[in-house]
Design goal:
Elements: E1 4-9, E2 18-24, E3 27-33, H1 46-49, E4 65-68, E5 71-74, H2 77-90, E6 96-100, H3 106-119, E7 125-127, H4 136-143, E8 161-165, H5 169-172, H6 174-185, E9 189-193, H7 199-203, E10 207-209, H8 216-229, H9 235-241, E11 242-243, H10 245-254, H11 257-264, H12 268-280, E12 284-288, H13 290-293, H14 298-311, E13 321-324, H15 333-336, E14 343-344, E15 348-349, H16 352-362, H17 375-381, E16 384-388, H18 392-395, H19 399-407, E17 411-416, E18 428-431, E19 440-443, E20 448-452, H20 465-475, H21 487-497, E21 515-516, E22 542-543, E23 562-567, H22 583-588, E24 593-597, H23 598-604, E25 611-615, E26 620-628, E27 635-639, E28 667-673
Parallel strand pairs: 6-7, 6-16, 8-9, 8-12, 9-10, 11-22, 12-13, 16-17, 17-18, 23-27, 24-26
Antiparallel strand pairs: 1-2, 2-3, 4-5, 4-18, 14-15, 19-20, 20-21, 23-28, 24-27, 25-26, 25-28
Iron/sulfur cluster is lined by residues 10, 12-13, 15-17, 40, 44-45, 47-48, 173-175.
């Protein structure tokens, strides 16, 4: 039998590396790097090299299931969808919510949000971006007008100073990290802020600012204060392209460097050195992720970074800007397509004017013109919850409370490729096609729209997510609104409703590397650098924001003396649904390990390999102790890929408007050795 090579995109992180799926006898037999692909240039990280094994492990869903007398029973698609439609028709539309995922394609997401809006007449839509970059969007809209990555991944190596904040890119974006390594070889200085001495800090950083957890704003303010004190700000850029400078200057001048040194735990001399290097760089690039964004103060942290970049004129040129590194394969698309409570597709805010616009696009009346519920509000308040590709039992904070709320639903529908922890609680489970079993597009971290291609048939009766929703739309009496026969037909509608995508076609996306939006016309090459002449704010100017340092709400005390944080490691991805079913990756690490400062471990009599119990005010989990000097005193870190020891049992739900971001990266815990 001949081998077939199908080009597609790695299903894991937002780097968007090209791969070839090797198909033999209707099955994926291997993965080969896509050498001509500009993002990864023929390289893949361990996850990309093993990007298909999980498809053939145990537990793929192949038939619709309904719960009867507490147990799942196989049923037909007709019966499963009829049951859902009947319940949706009888339920108050405000009580129905839709949780979706960055694993889905743009076409899947577009159809889901259209269903919620046109059929259920609500904006109760959200996804895991609530838990990673819901702070990014309001923070960057208020400063530069748009929450997107401002440079291209491919231009990072043009920077001569790269400031990496709260992200361990060597493990979480390994291929993007190659561009940082390349820049360093060309002479760039790398500054890393992280409370841990991560692999990135140890092997890439020229300066590691090992700050106290949760003090990012104080650190960035200290850097800006230094820049102003030493006259290193970019005067011409500030005058021509920004406003609000004087207020920021007055505020920074009022701060006491000794206070900032004490809060951050970093000597003023080291902060000043980092500030000078970034300010004097010809091209300064800021990369950040969850370590900055996943805080109750995430919006403030990101606004401060945008201030820093504007103060030094580091916007509008290749390799500059403030760049959020979104984690999912479709990390940008799951904002662009509008499956969120406050934006229609194309980041058009939910208001009267845009509601009229979309009523016109879709030929419907009565679309809701007020924002819908966010992720946790839906988990708490909706009586019917439709979960497509997401796993709130692992991703959402305070898991014990989430379980109770999901168990109380009148109807919980889960549409996924595996029986996830959330699906186990569902009333109806629908088998979905995976990313190798359907066509579509995804939009990567740097606004890069790319095509994924169907390589094999889905197992059993599994169907693409978009198709399932279209069939449900038909049952709900809206056949003509969901009469799509292919993802390309859906994409053609996206081109009409999302102006950033107007010039992109399936034909054009055959090119390796895809096209970066905005792309307004079919002869437009796409946009690698944002904000070249003006920012995306209504007046075209960058808006400086005064950002005050705020102490985290749950600070350690006598009873809970440690700060607990969590993150990703190279061998696993998010809730582990795929990577833990991949033997080679799971063999690398298959247990939750907690990093403990060596002295703290000694004081508590803890040795490497001991089983530890971590307790917060919300619950407790077990993990294996790993004493290390790479983490500061009284700080603990563990990966969050292991459902049996999910850090979100410990983390708190508290989150304020407008982002409703939980404080994932900071909560107070105590630890005990398991006897
Ligand atoms: Fe896949 Fe990300 Fe690794 Fe690239 S860097 S191969 S996209 S996991």
């Amino acid at each position: 039998m001949q081998l077939e090579y199908v080009p597609t995109i790695c299903p894991y992180c937002g780097c968007g590396c090209g791969i070839y799926l090797v198909v033999k006898d209707g099955r994926i037999a291997g993965v080969e790097p896509w050498k001509e692909h500009p993002v990864n240039e023929g390289k893949n990280c361990p996850k990309g090299k093993n990007a298909f094994d999980f498809l053939y492990g145990d537990g793929r869903l192949t038939k619709p299931l309904v719960r009867e007398n507490g147990a799942f029973k196989e049923t037909s698609w007709e019966k499963a969808l009829a049951l859902i439609a009947e319940k949706l028709k009888k339920t108050d539309s405000n009580s129905v919510g839709f949780i979706n995922s960055g694993k889905l394609t743009n076409e899947d997401l577009y159809v889901i949000q259209k269903f919620a809006r046109c059929v259920m007449k609500n904006n109760n839509l959200d996804n895991a971006s609530r838990f990673c970059h819901s702070t990014t969007v309001p923070a960057l809209i208020s400063t530069v007008g748009s929450g997107v990555m401002s440079t291209s991944e491919l231009n990072i190596d043009k920077a001569d100073c790269i400031f990496i904040c709260g992200t361990n890119i060597k493990e979480t974006y390994p291929i993007l990290a190659r561009r940082v390594i390349r820049a360093k070889r060309k002479g760039a200085t790398i500054i890393v802020t992280d409370p841990r001495r991560t692999l990135t800090a140890r092997t890439l950083a020229d300066i590691h600012l090992q700050l106290n957890p949760g003090t990012d704003t104080a650190l960035i303010n200290a850097m800006m204060k230094t820049i102003l004190a030493e006259g290193l700000e970019e005067r011409e850029f500030i005058e021509k392209r920004t406003r609000g400078f004087q207020e920021l200057k007055d505020y920074l001048t009022s701060l006491d460097m000794n206070d900032l040194e004490r809060i951050t735990g970093i000597s003023a001399d080291v902060i000043k050195e980092a500030a000078r290097i970034y300010a004097k760089a010809e091209t300064g690039c800021i990369l950040y992720n969850a370590g900055i964004a996943q805080h109750l103060t995430g919006i403030e942290n990101i606004r401060a970074l945008a201030d820093l970049a504007m103060l030094t004129g580091n916007y509008g040129r290749p390799g500059t800007g403030v760049n959020p590194l979104r984690g999912h394969i479709n990390g940008e698309g799951f904002g662009d397509m509008g499956p969120i409570p406050v934006f229609y597709p194309g980041f058009k805010p939910i208001n009267e004017e845009n509601t009229k616009l979309f009523e016109g696009y879709w030929g419907v009346e009565g679309l809701p013109s007020t924002p819908g519920m966010t992720y946790m509000d839906m988990v708490e308040k909706c009586s019917v919850l439709y979960v497509a590709g997401a796993n709130p039992m692992i991703s959402a904070p305070d898991t014990n409370s989430v379980r109770k709320m999901l168990e109380d639903k009148e109807l919980l529908v889960v549409q996924d490729i595996f029986m996830t922890e959330t699906a186990e609680l569902a009333d109806v489970v629908l088998p979905a096609a995976s990313w190798v079993e359907k066509d579509g597009t995804i939009t990567e971290v740097d606004r890069r729209v790319q095509r994924i291609g169907k390589a094999v048939d889905a197992p059993g009766e599994a169907k693409p997510d978009w198709k399932i929703i279209c069939e449900l739309g038909d049952l709900m009496g809206m056949k003509e609104k969901f009469n799509f026969n292919s993802p390309e037909e859906i994409f053609e509608e996206i081109r009409k409703t999302v102006p950033q995508y107007s010039g992109i076609t399936y034909e054009r996306l055959k090119k390796a590397g895809g096209i970066q939006w905005p792309c307004p016309k079919e002869d437009h090459p796409g946009t690698d650098t944002m904000f070249v002449e003006r920012f995306a704010t209504p007046d075209g100017l960058g808006h400086f924001q005064v950002v005050e340092y705020k102490q985290p709400t749950e600070i350690p005390d006598e009873e809970y003396p440690y700060v607990f944080s969590n993150g990703r490691i190279i061998f696993h991805y998010h809730s582990g649904t795929m990577t833990r079913k991949t033997e080679k990756l799971n063999n690398e690490i298959n247990k939750a390990i907690v990093e403990i400062n060596t002295e703290d471990a000694r004081e508590k009599g803890i040795k490497a390999g001991d089983e530890i119990i971590l307790k917060s005010r919300r619950g407790e989990i077990k993990a294996i102790a790993k004493p290390t000097d790479n983490i500061g005193k009284r700080v603990l870190f563990m990966p969050w890929h292991f459902s049996e020891s999910s850090p979100n049992v410990l983390t708190g739900p508290s989150a304020g408007p407008p982002s409703k971001m939980p404080g994932f990266k900071f909560c107070a815990v105590k630890m005990e050795v398991k006897q």
